[in-house]
């Protein structure tokens, strides 16, 4: 039994880049990418990726070299998810909402051999280059601009540009054979930064094996059939678009690209291209419902929406579903290559009362098949919590879809993998039916008089209030209890248009606290409610709690609202513009 | 980038047995197995498998030991697909339709440490033991009987029995931890014989990695959602039930077990348990349509049927789909751990004319995601055929889901993997849309006057004749052309009941040949039509062409039908009873 040796035929390293070759062979007439007036078929995308990879190789890009990119959801960004690893290199997609200083910090840490940047970011690019230490050394970081594909800018013939690289690439058959053969499936395929602005940059190294298994897990978790029409509302720079960059190729889908996530753009694309799938943070539901939401419920099938980043509030969920969106909730993290929990939805749950359905849908769900283990453990004893839906612990996971580690950060890597699992830093419970529900980020938990308060639970109650549009709860200092919840609230549109008298604001705060006291244990009620015009968010629509926590730190429960509220307004505005 | 070392958290060998642990955790209240009056939940199945594995370990079953089993689709057969590899051993499921000599030949070759056998096969077991060479050596093969779970036979206390092993198993936590940790994902998980009766037994060695990846590929190919109700019409001994033994656990499904595949049993189970999925060879469609087929089209959803082994004839397909079965066609082979091509069905194909739909559905389809490569190659030049839907070549595949090789048969392993791919021995074409269609087994191709004739194409024409129930075409010797097609036909029920005069038979043959000449090039028409009461089939309902070929060898195109027809009847009957 042991004598059998593996051979070329059955010992093939796993990599998602094979999905591109398969797509060109299996879906030769299907549209791979739609970007405004420009369409490609899968054989065309395959050809463009092969050419780009050949050009990269001719530029001496080699194994383990990093290639960075700053671009919105455009065809080039999609193609690079294949072409860069096909050249043996590692793709480093950078959050486009970061400022020059943050991007320079990432580049300094990642040390790429090339930087691709969308032409719309040209001024930013100049600023970044100025900030890089290369300026006074012999090193040089070539910048390659990506022009709008249908209207390329005139570039000087000496300047490298994206389409030029594709044109001049010469993918010979032997070179192409090499491109699709990965030496070791544990080799890195991408480098995704979770935070670049701090002194402790965390560059998550994703492997070919992890990306392959994660892609399969996504397709299964979402029950994605053949030939989906996928709308790119989720930024591809975010966790490689939750691995759907690779999954759409695997399923022979069509990628509908979008530069800007606005309500008219989304609805236009859904109608025009008959979109079947899209991913987004729950905050995008607000974009979908604001303005003139289009009722899609008459269509032959729903638009399947995979949402994550934070639990979808029940009221929002109900509304978007009425409009023809079928929402599935997932939970993931960059360190796990994408989503790792899916709120699987058995048929019979459709027969439950609507409110109960919404509560169930807000749960993060069950571990994907790419994980070998999921558990919720007491942080101190390292013991599994009882499956009672009540006892909180840290969610820990294990399996081949996890990152290889943090680049050049052995300390953070060690901490992340302590106790033989990836410690997610998220605090949750396991319900008796097996579904995991996240109560909070461990750092978002509010500890009041020794009691753990889940900020998410308080937010859920606030979201149910008819006047509340968005809410975020963080800890604020309390003289007696140590900490107490502080709520930041954006009111529904009609509400804020009304006269903004100080006592109005005060009575609003009183109302909301009173409302919370009716719906929550008293110790969980916010000591203060701060009204904002919008919440500070990152590029993916995720609310930036650290920013709010900074603000809340300067408050105490006894302060007058009128003064602090104004300060808060100014400070948060400042943060928002920076992001 | 290279400095990152893998660790316990992210370096987890792939194995489908983790799906059992996950099912117990994620679907704690779901029914795992239904067998008549007996039901289990997933935690119960998990517990029983852990106990059985613990018992096997206590019997000194160790890594790479083979454990054989002869049983129909009963809970024990399902449990052993997990428990045996959990003990580190290799499961060897044996075709229950084989005779004692054939099974003894397999056992002699596989050299198992234990043989599990269903009580209904007790006389067969005695016969097998007699045939084993162990009788006069010191070696001994312990036989463990599996009794009907709800009515266990009285067994002497000294006799090992299946339920006894489960009862006495003591799975300690440290033992269980070991059970779910596979040392190397390339270790074998099962040993499946494709032919045990010849002098050249082929025991296909399947790895944990291959089984894991194949299971994921099946779920994706069939777009199988959460919590399916799966009816076991396909024997589990056949390619581990096309890996659905593991897939139902992966999806938290319910396994509805069935000892005998009869029309009343199938319909009873579908109705009683609300079955959503089943697998079968197309010949089972005949079982579904004979007698009193139940119209299921009123149900809220169809019964999804995955079919393979031979292309589903259009007429049969149409009928079963009218009755509420939604058929998907797949193609696989034991050497590839299960199905490897799925006839993916894009939505817009539902708008095509019905006949065209049936033609498309008969295609074998697109390679699964677990394969790295699928191609159709000219056997002599090893070049890919043009994708024109016409040029035939051998289907070759590559990827981690392939077998490790044939046990103790380096020559056959070498032949199978020659040229760096698995050579399937199936001859097909690639259509311009990328779908592969199999024209024949390479050994079933009929070569007439230098022209290749696909027996499947001739059969397809015969199947369209209203009086034809089943048809199989093989080569028969021809004095002038070398070979010519010989058709074996079973008529529709009403037809055979009529008076069986010799000239009737003769005129029927003439009719059918005439009909073929109207619908096929003349050189492809059968030189002879032989009418049978039934076609010889193996345990999976697959028509045994080698048997028919043996018969046809004794015929020549000029023979009188009356004589040969009778001989054929007798000879085929003999084969049928043997299988």
Automatic annotation (TrEMBL), chains A, B:
Identification of the protein by name: Probable acyl-activating enzyme 12, peroxisomal
Gene symbol of the encoding locus: LOC104787601
Lineage: Eukaryota, Viridiplantae, Streptophyta, Embryophyta, Tracheophyta
Stretches assigned to the AMP-dependent synthetase/ligase domain: 21-407
Residues of the AMP-binding enzyme C-terminal domain: 457-542
Keywords: Ligase
CDD domains reported in the protein's UniProt record: ttLC_FACS_AEE21_like (cd12118)
Cited Gene3D superfamilies: 3.30.300.30, N-terminal domain of ligase-like
Alphabetized InterPro entries for the sequence: AMP-bd_C, AMP-bd_C_sf, AMP-dep_synth/lig_dom, ANL_N_sf
Organism, scientific name: Camelina sativa
Domain of life: Eukaryota
A Pfam family per the record: AMP-binding_C
PANTHER family linked to this entry: ACYL-ACTIVATING ENZYME, BENZOATE--COA LIGASE, PEROXISOMAL-RELATED
Family label: Belongs to the ATP-dependent AMP-binding enzyme family.
